[in-house]
Structure formats: structure tokens, C-alpha cells
Amino acid sequence: MIHDYEELEKHISKVSHFISKEQGKREKILEQIGEIEKSIIDIQNKIDLLEKVSILLQKTSEYARNQAKVQIESLVTNCLQYIFENNIEFEIEIEELYGKPNAEFYVTTKVDDTIIKTKPEQSRGGGVVDIISLALRIAFLQVHKPKIEGPLILDEPAKHVSEDYIFNVADFLKRTSEMFERQIIMVTHNNHLASIGTNAYRVTMKGTESHVEKITPD
What distance in Å separates the CA atoms of residue 130 and residue 26, rounded to the nearest whole number? Predict the structure, then answer.
């Protein structure tokens, strides 16, 4: 009987270990699914933004459309060059498609005498896409007629931009706020971006409760 009991204990222990291991795998898979869902939402938000800019260009007259095109190209290009410190440029090509103007977005860079032209999502990874998305938000707010008032609300801007350029992003946001006299409300985990705020708050979880504390600048 004792031997059978010990064997049963060992079997139960093995089963418990197996269940624990499988639960760990399940939690990891659920975590990965959550991250993928967040990425899908982020991509969808960027697609929605591109569609809004495209619609804005569609609804204006040819002259106003070309004016808006030049303004948007200039603002986004200046943003890209300010942050990445190179000759990268943003271009919008407008053509008639099924009787309506359709806008396509491109990024160009010059290497020696060769001009490389690609779609934003195909150029140098997510960092460029993040900055174009950020610049388009600003351009959309400034070019839209009538002008859209209110703050610029950002959720994890420049999430994929490397630390080599994050200081430039922070400085760009600060200068943009001052230049356009527009308040920026931003949610970020990046300390460099958080440091530019006039007011900054840290939100932490304690159990199931969120705790908010104001951050005092150093």
C-alpha cells in the first residue's frame, strides 16, 4: 500500500508539473496574441490616418489640392530630415482612379546619383512609418479647412524609432507645440519623450488599482 501511495504521489507530481508547464505556455501564447492585436490596431490606426489625408486631398479643388499636397510634403519631409538627419524626402503622387483623385505616398532617398523610391512601410523599418504617421497627423490638423482646434493627442509616438533618434523626436515635438501653439497630450513609456512635458504623470498598477503621481522635473 505504501509503495502504491508513493507511486501515486509521483504520478500526481508529474501531472501537476505538466499542467503548470502547459499553463505557462498558454500564458505566453496569450501574451503574444495580445501584442499582435495591439500591433494590428496600431497599423489600422495608421491606415485610417493615410485614408483621411487621401480623402482630404480628394475633396479639395485641383489648385487647393496641389497647395495642400505641397504643404503636407514639405512638413513631413522637414520632420523626417530633422529626426533622421539625412536627405530623405516624402512625396505624394495624385492620379485619377475611377474618376476620383487617388493619393499614393512615397519616401525617396538619394544615394550618390541614384534615387531610391519606396512606399513608407518598405523603407528602413517601422521607425520611418512612425515618424511619417506623426508628421501626417500634424499636417492634417494644420492643413484641414476649417482648421481643427484642440490638442494633439498621441499614444506611444515613435514606438519603433531607435534610441539614436529619440532625442530628435522629443525636440521636434517640443518645437512643433511651440510653433503651432498647440497643446500635446502624450502617453509614452519613453523617458526621453516624457521629459519634454510641462506636466508629466506616472501611472502604475498596484494590484487591480491604478495610481497616478506627478513627476517632478530633475
Answer: 31
Q: Quickly list DSSP for 54-115.
A: HHHHHHS-HHHHHHHHHHHHHHHHHHHHHHH-S--EEEEEEEEETTEEEEEEEEEEEETTEE
What DSSP designation does 196 have? T
Q: pLDDT tens for residues 69-112?
A: 888 899 999 999 999 878 889 999 888 777 677 888 999 988 77
Residue 63 is placed in which grid cell? 489648385
What pLDDT was estimated at residue 170?
92
CA distances from 203 to 1, 154, 199, 214, 216 (A): 57, 16, 13, 9, 14
For Cα atoms 154, 160, 197, give the angle at the middle one, nearest 5 degrees. 40
Residue of 70, 46, 85, 208 whose CA lies nearest to 139: 70
Global pTM exceeds 0.70:
no
**Could you tell me the pLDDT band of residue 169, with boundaries at 50, 70 and 90?**
very high
- What domains can be seen in the chain, in order of their start residue? 2-215 (3.40.50.300)
Q: Is 135's pLDDT higher than 80? A: yes
Question: Number of helices (H) and strands (E), helices first, in the chain?
Answer: 5, 7
Short-list 75, 72, 82, CA closest to 50: 72
The dihedral through the CA atoms of 24, 26, 27, 28 has a sign that is: positive
Residue 64 amino acid letter:
A
